[in-house]
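Entry for the shared binder. Reason: the reviewer on the internal report wants the predicted structure included alongside the sequence.
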Amino acid sequence: MNRTIFIHVEEEFLIAGTETFQGKFRNLSGKDTDRFWFYFFINKHNNRIDYGYEFRKSFQDNEPDFIGNFLDVIIDSEKTYEMSGYKNRYLECMFSITEDLRDQYFAVMHADGAPFNEKEPIPISISFSDNVTKQAQTLLSNYFTKRNYTVYQTGIPFPVLWTSMLIKSSVKTAKYAIIEAFGNNLNMSAVTYSEKTGIVRTHYKSFNRFGTNPAVHIIAHKIVNDANKLSGLLTTPESIEKEVKRHFLLAENLVWQMNNSNRPYLHVTTQFDENSGVPLNLTLSVDEIRRLTLLHIHQLSMFFEDNFLRHNKLSPESFDAVILLGDTLAGDLAQKEFLRFGSAKIRCFANSELKIVLPALAAFSNQKFDDSQLDSKAENTLEKVEIGELMPGNQVVLHTFDPTPGKGKAMQHLAYVGNNTFEVVASTRSLQKGDLATALETVWLPGMKAHFEILRNKSHLGRFETRPIKAMELF
């Protein structure tokens, strides 16, 4: 019997599920959908925080008391909202989601006849999109802990999880190219598998803002650029980018109109946030939008060919399959574009299929993976950590791996407090949040094991040894 909640976090939402009994997986629901959306309304009239997709438009229109871009704004500890005269950090908006998750979890446990104590922490296993920053991952994990959840497994790269669903028991070795666009960015990974090493992500590259639907991307940019030619209100790249994002929802509606009518033109009335109330009337050519969309899709495939494959000295022939994830890539036009890399190798999964990653997360306890061969140029990855050069407040993540059966991958997330001592932020092994770990080495290098003396609640627990270090991150 498994009492864990399995959670996957994307930029704009999280999904969650449980598998009390093996093979009986249930998705948990947020506000009549299988997604718990990170759009919030500060309901001052009822002194509560509401969340849901329906608040997306109000946020993009900059209406007061609506919160979006959540995983970005929570990083700024100075940003707060006010309710009943009290100031709160934006992270506290997660309260309503954690409570809904708790209520649904209890309902499932009752329905399945699983014994549990409502006062005990709820175990959760979390995976994160590559689009979610390490800072946001840490803040969310810590908040769940604060709300009486126990985070016991984090840091599994999303492409590794997805690959675990593709590998059959008879497969000895495999190599996949995974191109993912479930969020706003276009993420590319090369992932290999062997019985000896497990699942390894060897290369990774991300293209900012190229994960959105190509037609939506084209229409939003064209509306803003054409309207700005009329008004001249937007004078900086930042103001233009802000308006483009604000016009995504309008662009989505126009794509639907374009696909469901034979009209050669789209008539649009919009306004900029900087000059709200002044209408800007535009006419967009459907034929031009379709041509630009094809060019944009071709650009995505060129990113894969030039900036990923050729840059890393890879070839399409070396992959057993090329996996396209997300509606941006699962559409007919994108599929046709990527067929040139081998029609028999292309496999597509739409946005609606993202939720199948949750059973993979549940099953992953029986899998092994090693992210140690990840491109050393990835953000925050280090070849050496000299403890004497750290400053209090620096955080180090040690990714470790031992191929011995029953061991595999582990992670220690540590915050430096001074005098060679760290406070444990998160651990996938026996360390607990809040433990004090005094390092016995002065430098850490890949391949070595780190050793600590552990203090918990002022009691000395003895020595702790990590598995061999495969990668280190500092932030």
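Summary line for the report: The longest strand covers residues 408-418.
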